[in-house]
Design goal:
By secondary structure, the protein is α/β, with parallel strands linked by helices. It folds into 2 domains: 18-47 and 153-323, Rossmann fold (3-Layer(aba) Sandwich), CATH 3.40.50; 49-152, Rossmann fold. Helices cover 46% and strands 16% of the residues. It is built from 13 helices and 10 strands. The chain has helices spanning 22-28, 49-62, 77-89, 106-110, 113-119, 130-140, 155-174, 190-201, 217-234, 261-274, 283-296, 309-314, 316-323, and strands at 18-20, 33-37, 67-73, 92-98, 123-127, 145-147, 181-186, 207-212, 245-248, 301-305. It has a 6-stranded mixed sheet, sandwiched between helices. β8 (207-212), α9 (217-234) and β9 form a beta-alpha-beta unit. The chain is globular, with a radius of gyration of 19 Å. The structure holds pyridoxal-5'-phosphate. Residues 47-48, 77-78, 151, 153, 185-192, 279, 282-283, 306-308 line the site of pyridoxal-5'-phosphate.
């Protein structure tokens, strides 16, 4: 798997740590647990988007871009990491955000990721609906602007997680682990697609479980397959079979970004056993499924921590009500 032909800009610190989580494993009573810490990769408070952005912005710079435009929900982690990367690279950043989640209040609307977007110098356009977003987009688009898809999920962005798969498989191998189950959050899809494609191309004997936090599983699987095929095409490979991949959606609850009691309880579990903070939208709902799988698992199980800590603060009032001082 040679990714050297693709222009790439250095944004994160690699490899990210692969930490043992013995107290979490003991609490769940299942196999050994490892946490792949893609939440602590450096720039802009970190997270999974940096791996995609290394490829996406590498290409944008090669194309002579001076502006990056992208999209997301108000508390988009992708937008925040894109804004940070643009600050580092001296690019103008236009974030076209829409209110997709039924959450209100100062914490959600003004704190968390969105205050960081402003601090990184991005121009933030908050839109009520698709029509307003289209108009905002038209206004900021120009010939030296490059537009990135929501979540940075296209074939090129997927290569970031193909690289991550190789990194993780190497780290597991060094520990004598050649068969494991990797549990991955699935939103716009490229993280899971890259992990799935990368592990297949490496001929790795383990399995990948993608936990959808927004779309029905069948839809998420279709997106995963199409991103996997697109990324494979860029590498000159046929579409992957992905027989080692499972996609589930039963921990979404009432909807994307809407907290569930199970999500809060698993956030507490990770925090009190390992000192690890998950986010309410992605890693929290993924960890609900992870907790269920890990309790009955037979091989070592890896939790891919994709970040999102700033998003946690968007939900601060509810977190305080549950865990904070009375
Ligand atoms: C913290 C976090 N985890 C996971 C994901 C999901 O990754 P993907 O969009 O590649 O499926 C996102 C995407 O926004 C995210 O911000």
């Amino acid at each position: 798997m040679d990714l050297s032909a693709f222009p790439r800009v250095a944004l994160g610190s690699w490899p990210t740590p692969l930490d043992d989580a013995p107290r979490l494993a003991a609490a769940l009573g299942g196999p050994p647990i490892l946490i792949k810490r893609d939440d602590v990769n450096g720039l802009g408070a970190g997270g999974n988007k940096l791996r995609k952005l290394e490829f996406l912005l590498g290409q944008a710079l090669e194309q002579g871009a001076d502006t990056i435009i992208t999209f997301g929900a108000l508390q988009t982690n992708h937008g925040r990491q894109t804004a940070a990367a643009c600050a580092k690279l001296g690019l103008r950043c236009e974030l076209v955000l829409t209110a997709k989640v039924p959450m209100e209040g100062d914490a959600y609307e003004r704190s968390g990721n969105i205050v960081l977007d402003h601090m990184f110098g991005a121009n933030v356009h908050v839109c009520a609906d698709a029509e307003e977003s289209a108009a905002a987009y038209e206004k900021v688009n120009h010939d030296k602007a490059v537009t990135l898809p929501t979540g940075g999920s296209n074939g090129l962005g997927t290569l970031g997680y193909v690289a991550a798969a190789a990194e993780l498989v190497g780290q597991l191998h060094e520990r004598g682990i050649d068969n494991a189950l990797v549990v991955v959050p699935d939103g716009s899809g490229a993280t899971a697609a890259g992990m799935a494609l990368g592990t297949e191309l490496l001929g790795w004997p383990g399995t990948v479980h993608a936990v959808s936090v927004s779309h029905p599983a069948a839809e998420a699987e279709q997106v995963l397959r199409s991103l996997g095929a697109e990324a494979a095409g860029l590498l000159g490979e046929p579409a992957p079979e992905l027989g080692h991949v499972t996609v589930t959606d039963d921990t979404v609850g009432p909807g994307y970004g809407v907290p569930t009691p199970e999500m809060w309880s698993v956030l507490k579990l990770f925090a009190e056993t390992e000192g690890v903070v998950l986010d309410p939208v992605y890693t929290g709902k993924t960890a609900v499924k992870f907790r269920e799988i890990a309790a009955v698992g037979e091989v070592p199980i890896v939790f891919l921590h994709t970040g999102g800590l700033p998003g946690f603060y968007g939900y601060a009032p509810e977190a305080v009500a549950r865990f904070g001082p009375a």
